[in-house]
């Protein structure tokens, strides 16, 4: 005979409910509920701070008859025009204005993404919020004394909180076969583009300026629907150093859609999404543990095995991406056209030997020192301490060779040592054992 006391019975019942949470993960309201409260929470990010500056009079955005608020918004956010990439597939809510002759322009820095189309009514903005993940805004292209960034909800989340972003608010870089009018040929398939994507799946519906050797991609090409999918000529889009002649480059801030900027964009968007996932899952796990601690009368200062497993699951995914475990190796050098490579690398921070996590390789890999520069970002710093502590412990174990697994063979002893030294010189808030040299 088995006797279960009332408290334990209640706990087991709740545990059954909590174990079912992954089955509910596809529901959007998991981030609309406690502890995230996505739509109800007050954002604190680059755009909310910019809006605050507009309202208190410390920031002024001058309206330009040609580009509207685009240039002052980029200047206020510190986004370089060299980051410009152009997408001509109709995969935005401003589809009516997008075509192979009038592509949508996207500009970005470490935190924010700004999209604009020719003759469009609004500037589209998304930004990485330390608490809320990707937050979306629209700024009307109408001259006014007080421009307003209006937060967007369901219309953006239909795509930006879907299976493409693991059902959390996130950013998407998508590759699609695109016809002569800019319509995606969805019957031919689509590709979510990340640092792990093979070149032959990248940049469908995007313009690409730069050289990449023998590799071929989907960029710069128009496709024709066939019974078996789509037909296109990859040779026609390869190694272009100028925009397609159909595009009036004078209507854009630069005559480029830089290949290096595209590759950084692909790493960065997925990195933002994984930081969001790590933060959300940790906060949800801590919420669930607090409920169980109360029922079982447990000390709240000790992480349960279940909570530790949930933190480790999301943290491990983040660490792998940070260290470029799944990155596709390059067969030939990559050379951009816009000056983005030099502009990005100059941002630092640098250690005493002039080394930086932003230093490019572009011969066999994207970066010379494969640890994501977004470790410096406010979004990373805003992770719950439990998750940040786990990530730092994993990084230390991997970079010191204590954790020796085949996944990290690309991190030679010399590279691992260099990354540790760069972080020790440039990253505030590292755990004490990093400085002491022991884990």
* N-to-C series of helices and strands: HHHHEEEEEEHEEEEHHHHHHH
Oligomeric state: single chain
Q: What is the number of beta strands?
A: 10
Q: What is the first-to-last residue Cα distance?
A: 48 Å
Query: Over all CA atoms, what is the radius of gyration?
Result: 23 Å
Mean of residue pLDDT values: 90
Q: How would you describe the shape?
A: globular
The proportion of strand residues reads 5-15%
**Total count of helical runs of at least 4 residues:** 12
Estimated structural class: alpha+beta
Strand order of the largest sheet: 1-2-3-4-5-6
Helix content: 25-40%
Poorly predicted runs: 1-27
Main sheet specs: 6 strands, antiparallel
Kindly describe this structure.
- The protein is of the alpha+beta class.
- The protein has a domain at 266-436.
- It is 33% helix and 10% strand.
- It is built from twelve helices and ten strands.
- It has helices spanning 6-19, 21-24, 46-56, 70-77, 154-160, 259-296, 305-322, 340-345, 378-381, 385-399, 413-426, 432-436; strands spanning 85-87, 104-108, 112-116, 122-129, 133-140, 149-152, 174-176, 190-192, 224-226, 229-231.
- The strands form three sheets. It has a six-stranded antiparallel beta sheet with strand order 1-2-3-4-5-6, with helices on both faces.
- Strand 5 (133-140) and strand 6 form a beta hairpin.
- Helix 1 packs antiparallel against helix 6 (259-296).
- The model is unreliable at 1-27 (pLDDT under 50).
